[in-house]
Amino acid sequence: MGKNYLFKVITGVVFGLLVSCDNSSSDQFEPSANNGGNNGNTTPPPARVLEKITLNNNVQEEYTVNGTVFQKGMLRDGVTNNYYTGTATYINNKIGKIKFVGSLTGSMAYDFSVSEDSKGNVYSATCTATAAAAIDSFVSDYTFTYDATGKKLVKILEKRKVSGNTAYSLFTESTFTYNGDNIFKAECTNGTLTGTGAPNMTTAKLTVYSFQNYDSKVNPFSTLPKTFFTAWSLIRPENFYRISPNNPTSVFVMPPSPASGVNTPMTYVYDAFNYPVSDKDQVLKYAYRTL
User: Which of 158, 192, 223, 263 is placed for a possible disulfide with 172 were both Cys, Cβ 3.0 to 4.6 Å?
Assistant: First the structure.
């Protein structure tokens, strides 16, 4: 990955999800829970979680886990110098809130409440986004649709109230295509709502995020709660691949016309248990915490 770590995304699609910080209970995630693409290796991989990602020894992302309880994650916001810290709050042993706060003065703050089902899938969420200018603030409600197995997320519908208004006026609908268990494509359509609250497709603009050529190895983000990365992806949709079990080797973003698409190649070097430890140039590095 190296220089390609920072996605050069041209998009106006900005979502939201989750709120606050009162880590009083235990998260129900299983570190290193998938088989890690272990490819028949009879030695089980050590239980571990992603702790840090660095680029040229500069921290790009950092995650805090207390025991096996996820507390917060710090992520760089695209190509900017802004870093968002998302702090989780637990309700009845599940993540119920996450609040994302930027490091730069004037950053949008995303304050989310989220509901999970018994499988750990997010099925509804509300976001209160607070901007420096009140006119840019909004409240969004989300509904999530899964396939018949209840495992694959197939659609997210956001309805948004803007500038303190009490009625919904905008929508974003994201639909997902899979290759096996991995998200191959996220098609995000946004526009205005009709007077009856239905999406007005005549106003819609489409941004397509394609996650291509997956490997069969461990996605490092799968060692942390999926709910957290679902939230981050709703804010920055180019990251939806993070809720897949494996790693794409190419991310292609096609914004609405007439803008051009941008392709970001991604490369990996793996350890003996098929966890990525760096990109091929040894510039971008992944560090794990063994539990």
Answer: 158
Residue 31 — very low, low, confident or very high, per pLDDT cuts 50/70/90? low
Residue 231 DSSP one-character state: H
Task: Count the domains in the chain.
Answer: 1
Strand 48-55 to 262-265 pairing: unpaired
**Domain enclosing residue 160, as ranges:** 2-290
Query: What pLDDT score was predicted for residue 43?
Result: 66
Confidence band for 141, pLDDT divided at 50, 70 and 90: very high
Quote the pLDDT of residue 118. Answer: 82
pLDDT tens profile 61-78: 999 999 899 999 999 998
Exposure string (b/e) for 42-64, b if CB count within 10 Å is 16 or more?
A: eeebeebbbbebbbeeeebbbbb
Residues of the chain by 3-state class (helix, strand, coil), percent to 5: 10, 45, 45
pLDDT for the residue 52:
98
> For residue 76, what are the contacts with CB-CB under 8 A and spacing of at least 6?
6, 60, 61, 82, 83
Residue 30, SS3 per DSSP: coil
CA atoms of 62 and 223, how far apart (whole Å): 13
Output the pTM of the full model: 0.86
Q: What angle do CA 246, 49, 31 make, to 5 degrees?
A: 75
8 A C-beta contact, residue 3 and residue 283? yes
End-to-end distance of the chain based on CA atoms, in angstroms?
Answer: 27
Looking at the DSSP bridge assignments, the partners of residue 158 are 142, 172
Distance CA 86, CA 72 (A): 5
CB-neighbour burial class of residue 209 (10 A; exposed 0-12, middle 13-18, buried 19+)? buried
**Alpha-carbon distance 262 to 250, whole Å?**
10
